[in-house]
Structure formats: structure tokens, C-alpha cells
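Recall from the previous lesson that a structure prediction takes nothing but the amino acid sequence as input. Here we apply that procedure to SDR family NAD(P)-dependent oxidoreductase from Cohnella cellulosilytica. The sequence below is the only information supplied.
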Amino acid sequence: MARLANKIVLITGAGSGIGQSTAVLFAREGATVIVNDLEAAKGDETVRLIEEAGGKAICLAADVTDPEQVAGMVETIKSKYGRIDVLFNNAGISGVGMLHEIDPEAWDRVMKVNIRGVFVPSKYVLPLMMEQRGGSIINMSSCIAEIGLARRASYSATKGAVLALTKSMQVDYAPYNIRVNALLPGTILTPFVEKYLSESYDDPEEAYASLKTRQLSGDLGRPADVAQAALFLASDESKFMMGSPLYIDGGVVFG
Ligand code: NAD
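The prediction returns the following C-alpha cells.
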């Protein structure tokens, strides 16, 4: 039996990296996947990959920070499918620099996408889940919420906030049978990390090698590693997990 049979799933930022890998895995496990991304072309590519593998998906482009766009997206899903069983708040952007170097506009942008971008989709999906009396929300935090990493001040602040928000949401919505958990990945090789390495270091190869030495696993993670953890949180197999941080970090937090 497919692990997400008959589930309607919305994944934000699913046009690339972890979101794309998760969308493909969820569809393989029987879910109908609504692929959201800011960039329609990237979302369309994820839908193409899913359909090629025989799965079901549609792309709805929207900016997760924009209430009007998100409300419209949720309305479309509601009228087409009648429910949303899983919301994966995955969309996020990077922020690099020591605090004194960070441009205030750049600071606001990271806060906006990474925190407001969790708040807004949750705000519009929750009433539907409350009506259904059930659902699973997965928020994308990061292991950086728990360990210090150089030149990541703004980004780490957002991921700590997402972890705190997850716990607060869980308390409020537990009476509606809604579970809210957080993923805390370590460094996962995606376009996001490749950009960070090339922008932050003179020698990205050396930076990559030094990141690897922080891992007990000896290597960085891959999007599929996080997708498997998201699958567990999305499925009923994790029904006793509520407000939990789930680490997928190759041992970087505890190593
Ligand atoms: P990625 O850049 O490959 O993908 C992110 C996607 O989000 C992109 O397709 C982008 O277009 C989309 N997006 C950005 N802003 C958006 C917006 N306002 N509205 C809708 N979509 C938007 O990144 P990734 O590495 O797959 O990261 C996904 C998530 O995982 C992020 O929240 C990131 O912070 C988190 N994360 C990544 C790592 C890592 O090492 N890659 C580690 C921990 C946490």
C-alpha cells in the first residue's frame, strides 16, 4: 500500500532541491501533489518529472509571502480537491554575512521569505484542516537553529523562529487533530547550497571539503535524505509525533 495514498499535499518551493525531491517521492507514494513555487517554470519541471513517473501533480505558482496569492492558491486547491491533508512549508532563501555586514533590506528579505513564508500558507490552510479535523504540517527549519555556523546570522535567526513557531502551532492546533513538526536538515547539496558556497568562499571546493569534515557521516546530505524524513512526517506512521524537531544532519548537531 502506498504510504500517502489518496492524500492531497501542498509543497511550497517545490521547483528545486529538497522540495522537488519530496514532491517526486510523495507522488510515487500515491499523493496528489500541488507543486508551488515562485517561478512557474521550475514548478512545471517538477510536475513533468512526476507525470513522467506516472504520478499526479499540478503546479500553482505563488509567492508564499503574499496573502492574496496564497489565499487564491488555497481556494483553487479547495475547489479542485476539497481538502489539503499535508502542507510542507519548504520554500526558503539563504542569507549570508556577519551581522554588522548585513544590509537591512537583505535582513528583511530573509525574515520575510523564511518566516512570513511559513505564516502565510499556514494561515490559509489551517481553517481547511480544522474543518476536516486533521492534517499534517511540516515546517522547514534547519540544524542551524541549534548550532552556530559562521556568517549565517540572519538565516539562523529565521530557522530558530520556525522551530519556535512549530511548537506554538502544535499546541494551538492539537485539539483539531493537526500535527505540526519541523525538519532540521544539515547541509544538503542543492542549488541553494551551491550558490551559498560560491558566493561566500574564494575556493568553493575547499569550503565543501571543510563542511564535510563537520559531518559524522563524512559527506553532505542529498535532497532524497530529507524527502524520506518528510514522507515519514506526512504519513500516518508518525501520528505520535507532535511539535517535534526531526534531524537529518549526518550527525552535525550531536557529533
Ligand atoms: P532551493 O533554492 O533549491 O529551493 C528553494 C525553492 O523555493 C526554489 O525553487 C525557489 O524558487 C522557491 N522559493 C523561494 N522563495 C519563494 C517564495 N517567496 N515563494 C515561493 N517559492 C519560493 O533550496 P533547498 O536547498 O531545496 O532549500 C529548501 C528549504 O530547505 C529552504 O527553506 C532551506 O532554508 C531549507 N534548508 C536547506 C538546507 C540545505 O542545506 N540545502 C539545509 C537546511 C534547511
